[in-house]
């Protein structure tokens, strides 16, 4: 009789391929799935999964845990939502390669783009690296709960190769291009999963300047793509200008096409429904489909499965009044004292009547979009009725939107949150996203875990997909099999992680066991667990009975177990030869 490390018995298996669910057992040995079907053998540990759903661990291919992976062994919120593999280094921002004198520049870049406080990075980053391979070694040295892969970041490479000229966005000459090519190839040979970049004007340093990779020439992007190919291959990630600043879909897509054709490698790019240009995404999708049909490197639009939004609140980075002079005069007060002041009629009258000053960063200037602003609530509602917007409420009540937003912020003793749907909600519905979800080349991502600590908490999206899209949504929605495939084998395929994302013998034993009927997602809340006492948004869920990484249980009944089997994923991983199911 065979013996195993772990056997999961009697669960409803949704294997990640999109195939119909079935009831069966899964046996694990040596961190791998050893057998499936009716398991007769014995095990050191057994899980009774009767009535529960068993899936592969989820994969989020767009995070920013570049700092958190250095100072923390837990990559939460992601690991609290069934995610067992994350990819960081996206959007071209990160901390390697980096000379000592350039550390402040990379930190203010990350502070501005990803809303990570400078004091947190100053306290938390250990800086025992200069080169990218040395950074990978530092990531690998820390035990953690889930696996991490890393993209080499464009802005860091540019500054390392070009110095101040790179930071100032000077055009790259032939020598610069060769230096960047060598750095990127070196990174891929050392284990980078590919290369990340950004071209959007929204991404700015904390001092308001554009990031180093903004508006670089197309040859620089093609050069980076060839460098990844020459280093052994990988994926190319980019955040383009999505039409917000007037570029056509054809101009936007030309960047992905250039990178794809220069290297023959897969490209994934951020695709959102921009409120001002609600059909721009569909034009991009059609261009993508035509390109992929013609052959060459596949292009994968990457989308977020609920509104792309900022959270506004009195404890957060931004709210509609954060740049009003009368609010700034009391912003330093502890929350309870600030709320008491804000409830004074004369203070309320001053703040709601003032026009805000100029915001240094574009993201924080967006919290006065009254038509796109909603009470988040608990449980949180991410597909609200347009009639519940701040603008609609103000019109019904004959008041100005500022008064409505002000009163909402004071709910829950000042801890209430507002959702500002800055994208993905132009028509007051998420129905259009089903077209993205069912396109074979689109991929869910953009959880942004490890970043935007005081603005968003999007890495909870796997629980949202399971509860809203595959259970609760009225009208058209996903089957559970579709939802699981979208978060497992699809992102694994895009990233070249062939060893995970499917439940089958020979695959990595990254597994979720959850109560789908009883699963719940709760409103984000502030916690103060960052270095230097820094604060961030966290978001809890319930219903995850067990989350397993490489055969070890990291989460039981929604609580971390203190096990840290997560590892650095060095480079693309081949798919196993799948044996017959027992």
TrEMBL record:
SUPFAM superfamilies according to UniProt: Composite domain of metallo-dependent hydrolases, Metallo-dependent hydrolases
- Which part of the chain is the Amidohydrolase domain? 45-554
Q: Which InterPro entries match?
A: Amidohydro_3, Metal-dep_hydrolase_composite, Metal_Hydrolase, Metallo-dep_Hydrolases_sf
UniProt-listed Gene3D superfamilies? Metal-dependent hydrolases, Urease, subunit C, domain 1
The name under which this protein is listed is: Amidohydrolase family protein
Q: Source species, please?
A: Novosphingobium pokkalii
């Amino acid at each position: 009789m065979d013996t195993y490390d772990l056997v999961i018995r009697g669960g409803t298996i949704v294997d990640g391929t999109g195939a119909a669910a079935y009831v069966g057992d899964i046996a694990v040995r040596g961190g791998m799935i050893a057998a499936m079907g009716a398991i007769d053998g014995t095990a050191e540990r057994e899980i009774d999964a009767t009535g529960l759903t068993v899936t592969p661990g989820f994969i989020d291919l767009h995070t920013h845990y570049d700092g958190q992976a250095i100072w923390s062994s837990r990559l939460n919120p992601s690991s609290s939502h069934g995610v067992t593999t994350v990819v960081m280094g996206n959007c071209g921002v990160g901390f390697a390669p980096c000379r000592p004198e350039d550390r402040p520049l990379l930190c203010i870049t990350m502070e501005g783009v990803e809303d990570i406080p400078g004091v947190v990075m100053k306290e938390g980053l250990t800086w025992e690296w200069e080169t990218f391979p040395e950074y990978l070694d530092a990531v690998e040295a820390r035990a953690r709960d889930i696996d991490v892969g890393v993209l080499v970041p464009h802005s860091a490479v540019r500054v390392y190769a070009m110095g101040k000229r790179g930071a100032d966005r000077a055009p790259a000459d032939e020598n610069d291009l060769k230096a960047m090519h060598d750095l990127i190839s070196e990174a891929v040979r050392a284990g980078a999963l590919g290369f990340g970049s950004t071209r959007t004007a929204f991404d700015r340093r904390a001092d308001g300047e554009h990031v180093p990779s903004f508006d670089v020439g197309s040859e620089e992007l093609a050069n980076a793509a060839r460098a990844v190919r020459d280093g052994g291959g990988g994926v190319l990630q980019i955040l383009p200008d999505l039409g917000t600043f007037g570029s056509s879909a054809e101009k936007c897509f030309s960047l992905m096409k250039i990178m794809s054709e220069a290297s023959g490698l897969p490209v994934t790019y951020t695709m959102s429904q921009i409120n001002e240009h609600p059909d721009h995404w569909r034009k991009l999708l059609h261009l993508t489909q035509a390109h992929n049909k013609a052959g060459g490197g596949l292009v994968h639009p990457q989308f977020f499965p609920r509104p792309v939004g900022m959270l506004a609140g009195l404890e957060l980075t931004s709210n509609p009044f954060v740049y009003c002079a009368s609010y700034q005069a009391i912003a330093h007060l502890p929350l309870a004292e600030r709320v008491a002041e804000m409830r004074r009629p004369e203070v309320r009258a001053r703040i709601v009547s003032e026009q805000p000053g100029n915001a240094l960063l574009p993201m924080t200037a967006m919290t006065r979009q009254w038509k796109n602003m909603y009470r988040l609530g608990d449980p949180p509602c991410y597909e609200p009725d347009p009639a519940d917007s701040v603008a609609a409420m103000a019109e019904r009540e004959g008041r100005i939107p500022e008064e409505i937003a002000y009163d909402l912020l004071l709910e829950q003793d000042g801890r209430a949150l507002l959702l500002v749907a800055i994208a993905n909600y132009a028509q007051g519905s998420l129905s259009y996203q089903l077209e993205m979800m069912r396109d074979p080349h689109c991929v869910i991502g953009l959880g942004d875990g490890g970043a935007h600590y005081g603005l968003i908490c999007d890495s909870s999206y796997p629980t949202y997909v399971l509860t809203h899209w595959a259970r609760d949504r009225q009208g058209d929605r996903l089957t559970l099999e579709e939802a699981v495939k979208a978060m497992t084998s699809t992102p694994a395929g895009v990233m070249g992680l062939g060893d995970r994302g499917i439940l089958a013998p020979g695959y990595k034993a990254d597994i979720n066991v959850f109560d789908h009927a009883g699963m719940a997602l709760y409103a984000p809340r502030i916690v103060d667990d960052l270095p230097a006492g820094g604060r961030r948004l966290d978001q809890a869920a319930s219903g995850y009975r067990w989350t397993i990484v490489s055969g070890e249980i990291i989460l039981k009944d929604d609580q971390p177990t203190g096990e840290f089997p997560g590892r650095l994923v060095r480079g693309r991983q081949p798919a196993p030869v799948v044996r017959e199911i027992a």
